[in-house]
Amino acid sequence: MKMFSKNIKHTILSLLLPFGMYFIYNSFKNLSEFEFYFFLFFFYFILLNIILFFTLNKVERISIIVESKPKYLILYEVIKYVLIVSVIFSTYYWIIYDYKKQNFINVIEGNQFEIFFDFYYYSLTTFIMNNASEIKPTTILSKFLVLSQILISFSSIVIYLSNHKDFGNFFKQIEDKINNK
Fold this sequence. Notes:
Blueprint: H1 2-27, H2 33-68, H3 72-99, E1 104-105, H4 112-129, E2 136-137, H5 140-163, H6 165-180
Antiparallel strand pairs: 1-2
Helix pairs in contact: 1-2, 1-3, 2-3, 2-5, 3-4, 3-5, 4-5
């Protein structure tokens, strides 16, 4: 029970932190360009630390689940990870779009919730299907962020699969075949 409450706290904190960063950005809306990019760099550093923490935490939990619990819990942990990382990146996209609308094209013009939901859809499709959305990044900054998400999603999928017992054995067999030739 103690581990469960600790996990819930980390999940809630990771979900609320991006929104907190957006509201901090909104309170200092009239930032100079240097201040805005400094804020983005700071937020990006926090974002990468959160994702690294989640990746390491989930890999550890998947190792425990594989050994002692039913297989559907692995699916639960992976889906939770994907949804949280998508929320984090969609908030980041939301901030840079709010700063300069030219960072993305084909975003629904509406209230803030609709814009966030549009970016959440974009982030989720980027993570799962490598983007099936109409939204397109147009600036170097937005392309860099989308590329970061693609790299993080690919590497996290590889980490998850390699730590799963059955997939790990499969990759080990391939490695042994390559080394024996």
